[in-house]
Design goal:
The protein is an alpha/beta fold. The chain has 10 helices and 21 strands. Strands 5, 6, 7, 13, 14, 15, 16, 18 and 19 form a 9-stranded mixed beta sheet that branches. Strands 1, 2, 9, 10, 11, 12, 20 and 21 form an 8-stranded mixed beta sheet that branches. It starts with a strand and ends in an 18-residue tail after the last helix.
Length: 419
């Protein structure tokens, strides 16, 4: 069978890869989208909290206060968990993460990411309209719930900084305000902040599939295949689909999220990609209870989101080898706490879902040209913001690849920053 040929092959059909493929297609490139599943949005893009986080203008940096560090070190938190056997591998990356999380480093990362955050919802809205997926966007924002005066005070400081830094608005709620928005909550709260700007997607996996369907309707080709078969071939690149047929292209985009290292390491790149694993499980509400917003219980370290499938209970970060067997202890710890907050009923699926967040130490993605290989491009490492940033980074990458003036400065996202 003759080789399939294209201008660009995008490796990975999560929200990041599909968005990059769409933006390249819009600029006249003939694109093949390749994924091992042959279906979009089956991994990290399926299992997130569903937030297009227009309000999170400060990255999720490593905490530096002693109470957090002690709680994490004891390994009993719902927010963070680590595998003791993985520490020799994980600690060097955590040290880089800790160093990058200095006040100056965090501010640099926030300034670099701000143009992407500011465009995040608008870029999604444009793709949703083209895909006919507007019904997957809810404008509820989300609520951050506090149980102590200290955590509420810190939340108010974060709101003030976000307002001054990026014009992000939020509303501080007292107990009556919380009850008005979420009448089925129970417990003692000192307050909350409602962030109205973010969008909420109650089925993020379906959204990725809707974007992939738009890509194929516009003439794009979506094939199943193994990105690890990628090889440089003269002035271009070759790889094979699931049936062993050759695919050839001038350029390749690595948008493989937590599996990007399977391609860049064999090519000689030592990019410090780290993994934060996470879990979720869906539950039916008891009786007629309704959850109206995604809600983060800040002091107890879990999030509830009203997904189409049910109430999704999500956990914080687990530091472990990417492919180690699941250990959903954080979910087990969070479930009784979540049931104290909201009347959760029985689980909808028998086993929790596990996914992996791809993170760089400075909590910025790698976007742009590979330094030592012509025609090789990177678009991965979106940390907790893959759903949020996918369309924005897809646009930025496509502008770089087609010679347009980028809408944001791409230099903070270059792979060379880790040399």
């Amino acid at each position: 069978m003759a080789a399939q040929r294209a201008d660009v092959v995008v490796l990975g059909a999560g929200i990041v890869g599909v968005s990059a493929a769409l933006h390249l297609q819009q600029r006249g490139r003939d694109v093949i989208l390749l994924d091992r599943h042959g279906i979009a949005g089956e991994e990290t893009s399926y299992g997130n909290a569903g937030l297009i986080e227009r309000a999170s203008v400060f990255p999720y940096m490593f905490p530096r206060d002693l109470p957090h560090l002690v709680r994490y070190a004891l390994n009993r938190s719902t927010e963070a968990h680590y595998h003791l056997s993985a520490l020799p591998m994980v600690l060097p990356w955590l040290w880089r993460y800790f160093r990058a999380s200095s006040p100056a480093g965090a501010l640099r990362s926030a300034r670099a990411a701000l143009p992407l955050i500011e465009r995040s919802l608008a870029e999604h809205e444009a793709l949703m309209e083209a895909a006919g997926a507007q019904d997957l966007l809810r404008r509820t924002g989300w609520i951050k719930l506090f149980r102590s005066q200290a955590s509420l005070a810190q939340g108010v400081v974060e709101l003030k900084l976000a307002r001054e830094f990026a014009g992000v608005e939020g509303e501080v709620l007292d107990a009556a305000g919380i009850a008005a928005r979420e009448p089925n909550f129970s417990g003692d709260f000192t307050g909350a902040i409602h962030w109205p700007a973010p969008g909420f997607v109650p089925d993020p996996g379906k959204l990725a599939k809707s974007y992939a369907e738009l890509f194929t309707r516009r003439g794009g080709r979506f094939v199943a295949g193994d990105a690890r078969t990628l090889q440089q071939d003269g002035g271009g690149w070759q790889l094979r689909d699931a049936d062993g047929n050759t695919i050839a292209a001038r350029e390749v985009v690595v948008a493989l999220g937590p599996w990007a290292d399977l391609v860049f390491r064999p090519l000689g790149y030592n990019i410090p990609l780290g993994i934060k694993r996470g879990y979720h499980q869906h539950f039916a509400p008891r009786g007629n209870a309704v959850l109206h917003h995604p809600v983060l219980d800040a002091d107890r370290g879990f999030l509830l989101a009203p997904m189409n499938r049910g109430i999704r209970l999500t956990t914080g970060a687990e530091f472990a080898r990417r492919d180690a067997p699941p250990t959903p202890v954080q979910l087990e710890r969070a479930l009784p706490l979540a049931r104290d907050l909201f009347p959760l009923g029985e689980p909808i699926e028998a086993k929790p879902w596990m996914g992996a967040r791809p993170c760089l130490p400075d909590m910025l993605p790698v976007i742009g040209k590979a330094p030592r290989h012509a025609g090789l491009w990177f678009d991965f490492g979106h940390q907790h913001h893959g759903l949020t940033l996918g369309p924005a980074t897809g646009r930025l990458l496509a502008e770089m690849m087609t010679g347009e003036t980028p809408f944001a400065d791409p230099s903070p996202f270059a792979a060379e920053r880790f040399d």
